[in-house]
C-alpha cells in the first residue's frame, strides 16, 4: 500500500503543527535528558516499526539486546498508516523520542531524506568491519543509498515468485521458463465458462505497478531511461501489452480492481493455474485454513522475457536512525544486532528472508522454505534489480501515472495511445519531482 501520498512535506506540515507538536517534542526532550541535554541512563531506546513478522520476532528478543547495551528498549509496532502519521508528527517537530525507524527504502526514504529526517549511516556501515556491509546483497544495498548517503539498512527482502499448479503443468513439460511459455500455457488452461483462469495477478492501476516492474525489466525496459521517462519506449510498450493481454485473455473478470488481497484468494482456492506475486506470501498457499492447493502448489523463478529473467529483489523493510535521536550510538548498536549475520540467519531459518548473501548461501537458512521456493528465491535474488517502482519523491503519484496503460491493456483497449499520454505526463512529473527534490 502506498503511503507517500499521506506523508506531508516538512514545509506544509510545519505550518500546521509547529506549535503543539513542537511543544510536545520539547516536553519529551526535557523529561528524558540530564541538565546538560544528554539522555539520562533510564531513557529508553525508542524503536518505531511496522507490525510485521520480522519486528514481532525482534521484539521477542529485545531482552537480549537490553543486556548487551545496558539500556531499556521501547519498541512500538504500528500499521503502515499509523507509522506514517507518527513519523509526520514526531519528526516534523524534530522530536527526540524516536531513535530507530523502520522504513520502506523504495516508498518513503527519498522523501524522508528530502525532509532531513534520516541520519547518514555511510561511515558506520563502511568503517565497522564486523558489520560487513558488502555482505548485503547488491540490489537491496544499492536501494539503501540516497544522494550518495547510506540512509537505511535492509532487514526484510522480497522478490516475485511464479506460483503454479503442479498437477496442471505435468503434461506441459513443467512450469514455464519464459514469458512466452507462460502466455501459451495460461491460454491453454483457461476455461472461463467453468470459472477457471490461466493466470491471476494484480491489475489495480497503482497497486499493479510493483509486480509489473519485473515484466518491464524482462522486456528490456525501465521506468526512467537516461534521466527521462521510459514508459513510452518500445520495450515498455511491449511489457504493457504483454501483461495486459495476459490478464485480458486468461484472467478473471474485474481484474482491474484486483490488489494482492483480491488476487491471492483466487489462486489459493484453486481457480487459477498461475499467479505471480511476492514470495513473502508463500505460506498462505500452504495454510489449510485458506488454501485448497497446498498439496499441488509449486514455486518457480520469474520467467525470462526478451531481455532475460530480470525480476526485482527489493528491501521491503529497512532500519534507519532518526536525525534527531540523542541515542545514535545505541541506535546503531541495535541495527548491528538486528541486521547482523547471526540474527539474519536465525530469522531466515524461521521463514523471514533477509538481505545477507552469506546467509542465503547457507543451506540451513533456507531449510524452512519448500525446496523449489528456496531455489526460486535464490535465483531471483541473483538476477534481481533493487527497485520495483519509480524512485521519486511522490511515489504514489508516479505509480498512478505508470499504471494507467496497464488498465487499458487489461480492458482489451489499444495500449499505445494511453502509453503515449502517460509517457508525456510522467515526463512532466519527473521535471516537477526533481525540482521538488532540490527545493
Automatic annotation (TrEMBL):
Is Transport among the key words of this record? yes
**Under which name does UniProt file this protein?**
Sugar ABC transporter substrate-binding protein
Q: Which InterPro entries match?
A: Bact_solute-bd_prot1 (IPR050490), SBP (IPR006059), TAT_signal (IPR006311)
> What is the superkingdom listed in this entry's lineage?
Bacteria
Q: Which family does it belong to?
A: Belongs to the bacterial solute-binding protein 1 family.
PANTHER family tied to this protein: ABC TRANSPORTER PERIPLASMIC-BINDING PROTEIN YCJN-RELATED, ARABINOSE-BINDING PROTEIN-RELATED
Record has Cytoplasm as a keyword: no
The protein's matches in Pfam families, at most eight in alphabetical order, are given as: SBP_bac_1
Keywords, ordered alphabetically: Signal, Transport
Amino acid at each position: 500500500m502506498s503511503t507517500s501520498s499521506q506523508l506531508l512535506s516538512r514545509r506544509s506540515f510545519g505550518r500546521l503543527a509547529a506549535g503543539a507538536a513542537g511543544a510536545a517534542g520539547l516536553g519529551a526532550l526535557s523529561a528524558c535528558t540530564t541538565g546538560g541535554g544528554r539522555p539520562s541512563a533510564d531513557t529508553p531506546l525508542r524503536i518505531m516499526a511496522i507490525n510485521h513478522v520480522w519486528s514481532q520476532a525482534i521484539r521477542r528478543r529485545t531482552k537480549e539486546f537490553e543486556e548487551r547495551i545496558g539500556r531499556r528498549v521501547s519498541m512500538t509496532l504500528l500499521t503502515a498508516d499509523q507509522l506514517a502519521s507518527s513519523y509526520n508528527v514526531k519528526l516534523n517537530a524534530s522530536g527526540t523520542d524516536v531513535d530507530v525507524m523502520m522504513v520502506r527504502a523504495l516508498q518513503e526514504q527519498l522523501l524522508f531524506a528530502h525532509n532531513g529526517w534520516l541520519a547518514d549511516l555511510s561511515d558506520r556501515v563502511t568503517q565497522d568491519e564486523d558489520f560487513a556491509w558488502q555482505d548485503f546483497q547488491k540490489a537491496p544495498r544499492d536501494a539503501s543509498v540516497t544522494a550518495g548517503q547510506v540512509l537505511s539498512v535492509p532487514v526484510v527482502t522480497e522478490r516475485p515468485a511464479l506460483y503454479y499448479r503442479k498437477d496442471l503443468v505435468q503434461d506441459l513439460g513443467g512450469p514455464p521458463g519464459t514469458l512466452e511459455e507462460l502466455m501459451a500455457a495460461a491460454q491453454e488452461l483457461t476455461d472461463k465458462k467453468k470459472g477457471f483462469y490461466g493466470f491471476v495477478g494484480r491489475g489495480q492501476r497503482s497497486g499493479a505497478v510493483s509486480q509489473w516492474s519485473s515484466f518491464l525489466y524482462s522486456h528490456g525496459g525501465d521506468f526512467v531511461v537516461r534521466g527521462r521517462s521510459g514508459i513510452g519506449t518500445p520495450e515498455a510498450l511491449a511489457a504493457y501489452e504483454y501483461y495486459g493481454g495476459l490478464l485480458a485473455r486468461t484472467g478473471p473478470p474485474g481484474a482491474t480492481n484486483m490488489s494482492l488481497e483480491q488476487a491471492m484468494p483466487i489462486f489459493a482456492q484453486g481457480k487459477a493455474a498461475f499467479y505471480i506475486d511476492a514470495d513473502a506470501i508463500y505460506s498462505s498457499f500452504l495454510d489449510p485454513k485458506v488454501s485448497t492447493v497446498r498439496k499441488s502448489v509449486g514455486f518457480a523463478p520469474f520467467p525470462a522475457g526478451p531481455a532475460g529473467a530480470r525480476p526485482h529483489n527489493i528491501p521491503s523493510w529497512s532500519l534507519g536512525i532518526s536525525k534527531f535521536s540523542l541515542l545514535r550510538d545505541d541506535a546503531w548498536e541495535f541495527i548491528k544486532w538486528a541486521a547482523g549475520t547471526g540474527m539474519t540467519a536465525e530469522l531466515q531459518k524461521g521463514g523471514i528472508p533477509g538481505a545477507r548473501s552469506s546467509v542465503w548461501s547457507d543451506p540451513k537458512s533456507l531449510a524452512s522454505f519448500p525446496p523449489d521456493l528456496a531455489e526460486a528465491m535464490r535465483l531471483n535474488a541473483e538476477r534481481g534489480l533493487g527497485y520495483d517502482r519509480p524512485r521519486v519523491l511522490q511515489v504514489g503519484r508516479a505509480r498512478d501515472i505508470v499504471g494507467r496503460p496497464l488498465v487499458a491493456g487489461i480492458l482489451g483497449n489499444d495500449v499505445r495511445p494511453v502509453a503515449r499520454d502517460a509517457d508525456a505526463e510522467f515526463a512532466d512529473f519527473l521535471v516537477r519531482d526533481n525540482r521538488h527534490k532540490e527545493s
